[in-house]
Amino acid sequence: MTAFALDDPLDRGPGLPKPGNLLRTAADSMPPPGLVLLAIFSVQLGAGFAKELFTALPPSAVVFLRIAAGALIMGAFVRPRLRGLSWRDWAVGVGFGLTLALMNLSFYEALARLPMGIAVAIEFLGPLGVAVAASRRRIDLLWVCLAAAGVALLAPWGESAAASWVGIGFAVVAGACWAGYILLSAAAGRRFPGTTGLSFAMIVSGVVIAPIGVTTGGADLLQPELLLIGLGVGLLSSVIPYSLELQALRRMPKHVFGILMSMEPAVAALVGVLLLSEFLHVQQWAAIVCIVAASLGSTRTGRALT
């Protein structure tokens, strides 16, 4: 769940801080595909560490820690300007923030009930749907059918009942929010300079999720070790991947970026195995392969549209 249509989160023009210069120099020394793969692994490691927090905190409280950490860190680099905004600007910014909050909350609720690879694969139907909807090619029907086959393989029929219907429902909601996130990020990019729109949205999402997170987390949120892990989750899941992906987008075609991003469900499944010991059945791996292939296919056939 990462940004697609905004500029570099560390870009503040002439006043760019020295940490931003250091990060940019380090990023410039790596090939763009390496940046994208690092971003993908960063996001999924963040999700893995967040899931480990579920033993101490409910998912809603972990979401609050992640969003609050991300908003504070990004706000230190990118301060959105509120003066001079039209009501349409406010509508886009607030809608962006609400979508971001719901996307993270529903994804973490799915993550609490499903293996990482399955949750990310189902959620990935959101950006896949956006890509297919933007195309007018008949071959895209093949990718829709392939993705549908993947979902059917993940459905908890018989021996596949390890995945719960409730978890699948939350993952579907997260995917729909991800689709909305992509569209709203593009709209925010047109209305807000640099990445101030993303910073604005993260602040809004933090305000929205705070009552839920504080209520469910309670005094446990004040434990130093949990706060430290929450800060790490915010860095791995938001700030680092946003910076890496957007730096990569400056140096590579968007269709190549989309092809690399299609590997995210497979990386999520791999991180789930290595970090959380979430070993999947052959049928579940086949489902993830179907969804990854559908994403790859829609990205390649949609190349002429980008």
Question: How does this structure look, described?
Answer:
It is a single chain. The protein has 306 residues and is mostly helical. It has 13 helices and no strands. The protein has helices at 18-28, 32-53, 59-77, 87-111, 116-123, 125-133, 140-154, 165-191, 196-217, 224-249, 254-261, 264-276, 282-301. The longest helix has 27 residues, at 165-191. Its main location: membrane.
**Annotation field: number of helices:** 13
Counting structural domains, the number is 1
Along the chain, the helix and strand elements come as HHHHHHHHHHHHH
Largest sheet: none
Beta content comes to under 5%
Structural class: mainly alpha
Mean pLDDT over the residues:
83
Distance between the termini: 21 Å
Oligomer: single chain
Radius of gyration: 19 Å
Number of DSSP-assigned strands: 0
Poorly predicted regions are 3-19
Portion in helices: over 70%
Q: What gross morphology would you assign?
A: globular
